[in-house]
Amino acid sequence: AQSVSQHNHHVILSEAASLELGCNYSYGGTVNLFWYVQYPGQHLQLLLKYFSGDPLVKGIKGFEAEFIKSKFSFNLRKPSVQWSDTAEYFCAVNARGNYGQNFVFGPGTRLSVLP
Amino acid sequence: EPEVTQTPSHQVTQMGQEVILRCVPISNHLYFYWYRQILGQKVEFLVSFYNNEISEKSEIFDDQFSVERPDGSNFTLKIRSTKLEDSAMYFCASSVGQGAGNTEAFFGQGTRLTVV
Fold it and tell me: What is the per-residue pLDDT across B43-84, written as a single tens digit (0 to 9) for each?
């Protein structure tokens, strides 16, 4: 069974600070990897995704993530955060090639950016 | 831009009552999902649905839960006899996921279910 862990429960940063949120997964097969963001009171939105190819993927709003297969990691980064990045961030995994395979979410990391 | 829509946005029900949460997935999507998020907790998988049948379900999805695709557009989650602990935000999602399954899930705005 797949599982996803996220290193931090709550991260507090000042504006312009750099961000890195850790994500590790456990699964023996090939996976698709995602980062979703949930702004306060809103639904989940896709930030970025990795299916194959270049392990460094760029998403919306200046976010990027790097897939390191040997470490089973998919860490999210942003060089300079803004107050509007305050949200909950979820890493998710989906086993590639399985029909109807569900998306397994990590527990989430709450990011608070101080103005 | 196509989106997943859910109704109602907020449902209040008495314990023991049946509730039906409704979702309209994106029209060309083939895979449908229900997730829930208890306040302050992680997003939990409930069930996935493909080709008019459940393809996977979690331990949470017990006999009190059922899903249905009654027509070509709606995807519903029914809770037969609600409990206080069913209070949560319920998210519907859909994905294209044909063949290799390389696709993301698109989520609806959620239905906040409050059981009193």
Answer: 898 998 988 899 888 899 999 999 999 887 899 999 999 999
| Beta carbons of B101 and A97 less than 8 Å apart | yes
Residues of B in contact with A95 (CB under 8 A): 101
Mutation for testing the B interface, residue in A35, A43, A98, A104 having most B CBs under 10 Å:
A43
> Which residue is listed with tokens 């993927």?
A57
For the record, the structure tokens of B100 come out as 């290799």
pLDDT at B9 over 60: yes
| Among candidate residues A62, A2, A85, A75, the one with its CA nearest the CA of residue A35 | A75
Which residues in chain A have Cβ-Cβ distances shorter than 8 Å to B49? 100
